Amino acid sequence: MILQEILQKIVDSDTSICLSDKEKDWDAGVLLAQLPAPVLRRPAYMQPGLYIAEVNDGGYLGRVLYRIKHK
Known about the structure:
Blueprint: H1 3-13, E1 17-20, E2 25-26, H2 28-34, H3 37-40, E3 44-47, E4 51-55, E5 61-70
Antiparallel strand pairs: 1-2, 1-5, 3-4, 4-5
């Protein structure tokens, strides 16, 4: 799965969560609209209720991109 698909699922589900990086909290729709295409195509994995992490070339979880926060 890629980051774009994960963000789209969050937007479509209309859940009341925000995504937090090291700097601020984001709405999934805002990230979907503002992130550049290469970032949106990055392989990623969402652990529901906890985080979204990148998936490296070896198929392993890499760094956490966003922590999931409930509004």
